[in-house]
Amino acid sequence: MIDRRSADEDLLAATRQGDLRAFDELYTRYERRLFGYIRRMVGDRNQAEDLLQDVLLTVIRDRSYDPSKGRFSAWLFTVARNRCLQHRRRAEVRERSPGLPPEPVADPEQRVARTQQVRSAMAGLTDAQQQLLLLKQVGELTYRELADIHGVAEGTIKSRLHAATQAFRRRLAELGEG
Amino acid sequence: MHCPDCEPRLIDYACHELPDEERAAVAGHLATCSGCALEYCRLQADLEGITEAHTEAPRARVYHQLRRVVAREHGASWIDRARGLLVRPVPMYGAVLATLVPVAVWMLTVRGPAPEPPGATPSVTVAPNATVIDYDASATPPSHRGVL
Q1: ipTM of the assembly?
Q2: Is the domain of B47 the same as that of B72?
Q3: Residues from chain A contacting residue B7 (CB–CB below 8 Å)
Q4: Span A142-174, pLDDT tens digits
């Protein structure tokens, strides 16, 4: 029986068996966070929507995922991160320009001053710091999961995340004062 | 715990990454130290700002397209659907029978016996113990009775 308390892994299994209610629940859980993360990584809304579809179809089709080895959300954001990096590399080759982090696209949401400040503060960080903060805050991954994704020790992730958080807050405070 | 011990642990505390013992110690300190509590609230607000600024819904067409693809690739076949009907707690065929049987009985009752085939001698059936009340066989038939 599928309901709002079902685990992600159960929803994924039910979706693969053709239960569209399970798909609906899974989509509802992740659409905003996953799309927000992808949009921040690639910038363009249309491309982000294409990538969102690509990522979700990949995780539904790919049966290599083993729930005993980690949470579904960690796997989902790992796939999303890899797709976004791949997309960026292709875009860089096409445009022959350095891979600068995309600037936030102007839209009505950015009229909210706080949101704009946060995005500006994030844009001032290095790409690695941005990714780390996004995966931690938006993806809600643990230090252990982040360490697995980046292939480094948990302690390294911890110190990098501390540095990124402090840099972000410093930048946010500067923007607030300015 | 004192402020210099608490401060470097605030990020881990906000990220739910502290061991239970340290977590309890930080929580205890925050409950008694207004300076650290204020700093924690600011940190929490900044981190929540990241989440709020970077969550965004895709357009509805994305959902519809995805759902169509999932239904096409993983949707149940007619065999699976039929199997699903049979293994339900109240089987569908049971419900169908419960509806159809009373209707069929009622229709047979209303229509009466089937017509006889052409050429067959019509059979007159008389009830063996038929009794007629208030009938006198020796009395003059009503058509031969005087009007007055």
Answers
A1: 0.77
A2: no
A3: none
A4: 999 999 988 999 999 999 999 999 999 999 998
Q: Is some CB atom of chain A closer than 8 A to the CB atom of B3?
A: no
Which residues, other chains included, contact A72 with Cβ-Cβ below 8 Å and sequence gap of 6+? A7, A8, A9, A12, A59, A65
* pLDDT for residue B124: 60
**Count of domains for chain B:** 2
Same domain membership, residue B104 and residue B67? yes
* Best residue of B43, B44, B51 to probe chain A, by most A CBs closer than 10 Å: B51
Can you say how many angstroms the Cα of residue B7 is from the centroid of all Cα atoms in its chain? 53
Which chain A residue has its CA at the smallest distance from B43's CA? A169
Residue B72's domain spans which residues?
A: 60-108
Which residue of B47, B66, B74 is in closest CB contact with A53?
A: B66
**Rg (alpha carbons) of chain A, rounded to whole number:** 17
Same domain, B73 and B42: no
* DSSP designation for B76: P
B49 interface with A at CB cutoff 8 Å: yes
Measured distance CA(B80)–CA(B123) in Å, rounded? 55
Contact at CB, A17 and B47, closer than 8 angstroms: no
- Give yes or no for a contact between A162 and A148, defined as CB atoms under 8 angstroms apart: no
Asked if A49 and B62 count as a contact pair (C-beta separation under 8 A), the reply is yes
- Distance from A61 to chain B by nearest Cα, in Å? 9
Q: Chain B: give the shortest CA distance to residue A30, in Å.
A: 10
Q: Is residue B81 part of a domain?
A: yes
| A37 or B146: which leads in pLDDT | A37
Same domain, B37 and B68: no
What are the pLDDT digits (tens) for B35-88? Answer: 999 999 999 999 988 888 888 889 999 999 989 888 888 776 677 667 766 766
The helix (run of H) or strand (run of E) holding residue B37 is: helix B34-53
Q: How far apart are CA A28 and CA A8, in angstroms?
A: 11
